Amino acid sequence: MVEHYDLLVRDARLLGRDPSELWDVAIVEGKVVEVSHHVAGHSEFEVDARRCLVTPPFANPHLHACKVYTFLMLGEEAVREYQSSGMGGAMAAIEIASRVKEKYEESWIRRNAMKAMLDGLRYGVLYVRAFVDVDTKARLEGIKALLKVRDALKDYMTIQVVAFPQDGVVREPGAEELVRKAVELGADVVGGIPWIELSEEDEWAHINAMFEIAKEFNKDIAMLTDDAGDPSLRTTWKLAIKTLKEGWTDRVTACHARALATYPKPSLLKVAELARKAGMSFVTDPHTGPLYLPFKELLRLGVNVALGQDDIADAYYPYGMNNMLEVAFLASHITWSMTLKDMDTFMDMITWRAAKAMNVKYPSIRPGDPANLLIHEGRTPYELIWYHKPPKYVISRGKVVAESGKLTEEIHALTT
Asked: What pTM was estimated for this model as a whole?
């Protein structure tokens, strides 16, 4: 009996498998039902992969989604501070960037965030962790906007909304209660930025307060730690200690942690071992600042590390397209990581490692998994990162949602 499938992909190289072998992938009702060297059957929609690479989708575990496309609203003062030598002006940059929140309105934030997410969809990003500022200036405008974007796109991509107290908790009275309200409204993850506080005691208070909310609502945690060139910063260490104490293993992510690049080797090894025991993930964004996490050492020590976009045209970084292949391309140059092994590592850092940092069940291309996959024009990770083009086809839950960088009419109708 000849089987009929909703979609058939022919002659594909599959990421992680022998590149000399070609595979067919059959999809029915949004799931992969067969992967073999030849699928006997037919479909009204068949895609010839032409011996190119087919991969699971990309994930972006760190994007400040309420600030996208605000660069021209503020100018370049914050960029100058944030990217100054040694990142000594990082805190000043945050204070400058916070001015945009005086103009926060749900309507324009929603439009901007939707554009960023759709750009990600065009480039094969089906998982995004969206950080949204919550404080007395931003109020809950960004949260309301991103919850609407998340729900509008829920059938096509997974967006996790992070309630993020960008200006601190102790420094910003009222922020803690607003984070709680944001979670009550539906935010998926509890954020934090303890290094921004003014004393070690206040750093602990920040971490403790966010853990209290996370435990109350059974939420994962994502914090920005030690985002400056200061070897005395230790909030990454504090976060790992707290994670172990509270038993929140495999549920905590640290973003940036740039100060680790300045640590003596023994101190770095201690933090890495604590993080490994805590099941913590890290997200690094080397393109948005002159320091970056020593990710190769952490990976060697068994700690999960992913790449993130971080910013799109905001006060900290004037570029960005939510294109994770571009992020990998930039990371390769900035970190002088240009071997074929490095390129394979970066592919891991924008696929399954990024999904692990978000604590989501990530689809492989195997029978029974959701049919979320990308059909590329290149044949190797090297070619994909080299050209960082949009996939030939982006398939979400068995449906083609973008072709060669153009979204389908179904997506346009949904979001306009």
From this structure: 0.94
